[in-house]
TrEMBL record, chain B:
The chain crosses the membrane at residues 47-67, 79-97, 136-163, 169-195, 216-236, 242-260, 272-294, 314-341, 396-416. The complex comprises the extracytoplasmic solute receptor protein and the two transmembrane proteins. Its main location: membrane. PANTHER family: SIALIC ACID TRAP TRANSPORTER PERMEASE PROTEIN SIAT-RELATED, TRAP TRANSPORTER LARGE PERMEASE PROTEIN. This is TRAP transporter large permease protein. Keywords: Cell inner membrane, Cell membrane, Membrane, Transmembrane, Transmembrane helix, Transport. Part of the tripartite ATP-independent periplasmic (TRAP) transport system. It comes from Terasakiispira papahanaumokuakeensis. It is a multi-pass membrane protein. The keyword Transmembrane helix applies. The lineage of its organism: Bacteria, Pseudomonadati, Pseudomonadota, Gammaproteobacteria, Oceanospirillales. It is found in: Cell inner membrane.
Automatic annotation (TrEMBL), chain C:
Residues 26-149 form the Tripartite ATP-independent periplasmic transporters DctQ component domain. It comes from Terasakiispira papahanaumokuakeensis. This is TRAP transporter small permease protein. Its main location: membrane. GO terms for molecular function: transmembrane transporter activity.
Amino acid sequence: SQEKIVFAIGGSSQSLQGQTALEFKRNLEEKLGDQVQVEYYDSGQLGDERQLIQRLRLGTVDLAAISSIMSSVAPEFALFDLPYLVESREHLKQIDDEIVMQDLADTAEKKGLKIISTWENGFRHITNNQRPITTPSDLNGLRIRTPQSDWRTRMFSAWGANPTPMAFSEVFVGLQTGVIDGQENPLSNIYGARLHEVQKYLSLSNHVYTPIWLTAGQGGWNQYSENIRTAISEAAIETQSWALTRGAELDQELISTMRDSGIEVNEVDRDAFIKASTSVYEAFAEQVEGGQALIDRAMELADQ
Amino acid sequence: MTLLIVIAALFALVLINVPIAVAIGVVGVVGVYINMGPEHLLNVPLTLFNGATNFPLIAIPLFIFAGALMNTSGISTRLINLVTAMVGFVRGGLAMVNVGVSMFFAEISGSAVADVAATGSVLIPEMKRKHYNHEFSAAITSSSASLAIIIPPSLSMIIYGAIAEVSIVQLFVAGIIPGIIGGIGLACFCYYYAVKYNLPREEAFSLGRLGHAFKEAAWALILPVIILGGIFGGFVTATEGAGIAVFAALIIGGLIYRELNLKILYRAVTEGVIQTAVVMLLVATSAVLGLFLTEMQLPQQLAQEITTITQDPLAVLALLNILLLLLGMFLHGAAAIILVVPIVMPLVTQVGIDPIHFGLILTLNLAIGQQTPPVASVLATACSIAKTDMWNTTKVNFPMIGVLLMVLLLVTYIPATSLYLVDLFY
Amino acid sequence: MIRIEQIRLITEKILEFFTVTLLLSLTLIVLLAVAFRTLGSSITWYDEVASIGLAWLSFYGANLAAIKRAHMGFPSFVSNAHPFIRIILFILSELIVVSFFIIMAYYGYQVLDVLAWDSLVSLPQVSLTFTQSVIPVSSVLFIICELLSLPGAWKKMKQGIDSDHEAIEEAIRLAEQGLKEQRL
Ligand code: NA
Ligand code: NA
């Protein structure tokens, strides 16, 4: 009989996440042919990521792409909320093999979630209307919209900004009227929401790399036949390399597109930001069990 | 087919007087159970909860709270006096005052019924005393009150913005020109009617009286300035603008006018809680129905079926207008938005209609829906104050519905009517 | 009969007080958030907590609306029906409402287990079990409120009173009363 796989993401179809999800769907269907029917939903039609996690556990969604909210499931995932931990996509691949698929996947499993593969939402950058950001002191007093995330707000506070939560649907107008001065997101989100049209400066801060995890509910995962599990895993891994390549391409494309549309683009002083981030690392080491060890291992992988 | 069954089931439940919110929830739950199986019912409470945790909708209780404060602190009465001093000297002045007050008021309390009750109970008896036709008095009160939902701030727009995930501030801006056109249209009709039936003027225009009324109402006038200034000036978001309104109304009513009666206020706030909850339960249960409809892919199917017939946005808008006008006859405003938006939104985006543009069209349709019996709560309230028959009043109301329809056509087919200011600013 | 009416009144007053407090707190949170943001140190848990506050206000407010029979409906068909049919439809409609909330209460309770693993994003010490408890609790309360207001609704149904019409009369009465008190 034909098996039905319900696969959902929170992002829009045009976002990198949406493009990646479609690529995965294609790969999976190619592998399994008529054996399965993949029912795919994007744009949060089945709920935001918080709801998707809940539905994975209930077994009413089979596969979902989950990003930074994972740290509210298992605090270890906040590793990716440490500024400047991930240096490049190659480094990310190392961290993924050595830490995510080993340690983090284990902790998620204890919370009922099976991590299948790591895809990308992208490196995050800062835009604002006041001035180009090169050092943390340039952020001083700026109201920067951040998503609901304990670690992200801590990071921006540490740099002297005033991190401000706001519903994403109000961000465009908020930036325009000046309720907020700036925001931080991966380039594809910035471009997708046309935020560059209402912002003067795009500072390529690369402050955080946001992965997105293809995740299944542990219960549902165990019920699949060996054959289907393998197919899903293989399709997901093929999609990972596609996503990393596409992510890098997209970054180049979008920087030039947005520059052409008039936003001023600049690089940041990476070392100054790293220096200003020590308190975030200390907090992570203190609050997360085995945190320091995780940091050390991740940093070591950068040199390999 | 499934969509027809859903509609029939909803209709049947509502007809036997199951509360609309519960009826929507029941259809959702039964749909989930039959099509997806009992284990999927676990999604229902999650969806119900998430449906209600919609941040922009916090504006609903806040605006209602602000409206209650205004109504109980003498701000409303002062506004009426001011508008009378401004336009009362024209022939048929009271009718114009009615239009003017509604534009100022612009559905502040969140319940169109409560607003009509507030303005109507002052103006309708006054109009009767001045020998205005009773049906006309009810009709103009009712139509101008409906016009108010397209003038910012507007709760209908807040609900639409929150559900369709578009900017509420942009919707507000889009409502300004259509609102003014509608107001002028109604005022022109009043003047025509006044000349034809030789209706009286109020007292002659007096600069002194205007000055006095202006002074009295100055603080009340500052209120919209604070709210809209706060929003457009980048001090607060649209949602927080409602919070500022509460704060300002408290200060003005409590410290400056000193007319806050705590007992009345408590009652008004309780009333506000109920109005909020009534709308929000609808929002929450509609999310449950949405869960079922999405998994059945119904909105997408509908979009697909209609786009095989026509891809022309203008034709699709015509279809949507007919649907909305029909729905407006039978559904209360908020219920119509909450129910319709998730179903037609895929269609709207697929043929490339600007969601802000569609929001204005939807809101205008609902304004008209409040004037069309059998379900026409605003009209019914005005009739009840004027003690007139709803059907006879509707006959007099036709030209005014005509004005609203004209604005609807303008907004629909000349998108710049609503979008010009939006494009200018954003 | 008199006792039920007393319990109904007390329940109504408690719900009123609780929801008005929720509304005031919500207002305060929004105002504080604006103030703190302007002063340069935004409250980071603001939108998450405020959204949950709204959900609580909505569901407990819905209980208040239920006990006052104020939910949006379409009463004119039933109130114009033949008295016998009216009774049948009334009972049917009450049964549907109560069944719906029994289902909500049951599944709402079941789902709390799944949520025990999660907490708020901005305030990790607050568990979702706590925030989402509003669904089963308010569902049970809804049934209680529906039952407590049943005798009054039954009486009105027998007399064929249209509740929409009644609500309009009430709004006008309140407006006129407010007007009189202002003029005094
Ligand atoms: Na308005
Ligand atoms: Na109607």
